Amino acid sequence: MKLTEINLNKLERKIIGIISNDIKLITPQIPVIYLEGGHYDPRYPVTEFSVTSLHHALNIANNAIINHKKISRYHLVY
Q1: How far apart are CA 37 and CA 57, in angstroms?
Q2: How far is residue 77's CA from residue 65's CA, in Å, rounded to a whole number?
Q3: Which end of the chain is less packed: N or C, by CB atoms within 10 Å?
Q4: What angle do helix axes 10-25 and 48-68 make, rounded to 10 degrees?
Q5: Are 53 and 38 in contact (CB under 8 A)?
Q6: Sign of torsion, CA 50 52 53 57?
Q7: Strand (E) or helix (H) holding 70
Q8: Which pLDDT value is given to residue 70?
């Protein structure tokens, strides 16, 4: 599946910038990114925060994969 870059909002762009800088400075050979979003508890209705945070995490992950997948084809972790 080929991913296409998503237009990120201001918050998402800031986070992807932090991730990109960390990868360049700390783990340039093996970029590992952990994002969490959603925080859904089946005992309660889905909240706006749950949906929004998951949406942000997926957008950021999509663009991070596109931007950094070529750094190391041997050590890529999704």
Answers
A1: 6
A2: 9
A3: N
A4: 40
A5: yes
A6: positive
A7: none
A8: 53
Structure confidence by residue, pLDDT tens digits, 9-68: 999 999 989 988 888 888 777 777 777 777 767 888 888 888 888 888 889 888 888 887
Question: What is the four-CA torsion angle of 38, 29, 77, 5, rounded to 10 degrees?
Answer: 60
Q: What is the pLDDT of residue 13?
A: 92
d(CA 16, CA 35): 11
Residue 57 Cα to chain centre, angstroms: 5
In 3D space, the residue among 76, 62, 52, 77 whose CA is nearest the CA of residue 7 turns out to be: 62
Q: Is residue 16 exposed (0-12), middle (13-18) or buried (19+ Cβ within 10 Å)?
A: buried
